[in-house]
Amino acid sequence: MKADVDADRCQGHARCWQICPGFFSLDEEGHAYVESSDVPVELESKVRDAAENCPERAITLS
Ligand code: SF4
């Protein structure tokens, strides 16, 4: 599974990071980014939760 953050949509709520800090990182303005789109198998469930809870629908899964 892959996950990406659309920087144009992200408003910096940090919900994704609260749900799965092992995958999402925050920049100095609180906007989320990912080091690598490849989601470790053990984090897939949490990353899905994060995508569903992003108020801006900024996280895409593939
Ligand atoms: S929850 Fe969505 S809007 Fe908030 S920081 Fe994460 S990607 Fe950005």
Average pLDDT works out at 97
Q: What's the helix count?
A: 2
C-alpha geometry: globular
Q: Which architecture name does CATH use?
A: 2-Layer Sandwich
Count of domains: 1
Task: Please report the total strand number as a whole number.
Answer: 4
**Strand order within the widest beta sheet:** 1-4
Largest sheet at a glance?
A: 2 strands, antiparallel
Structure characteristics:
single chain; 62 residues; alpha+beta; Alpha-Beta Plaits; two-stranded antiparallel ribbon; 2 helices; 24% helix; binds iron/sulfur cluster
Give an account of the 3D structure.
The protein is of the alpha+beta class and 62 residues long. It has a single domain, classed as Alpha-Beta Plaits (2-Layer Sandwich), CATH 3.30.70. It has two helices and four strands. The strands form two sheets. Strands 1-4 form a two-stranded antiparallel ribbon. Strands 2-3 form a two-stranded antiparallel sheet. The longest helix is centred in the last third of the chain and has 10 residues, at 44-53. It starts with a strand and ends with a strand.
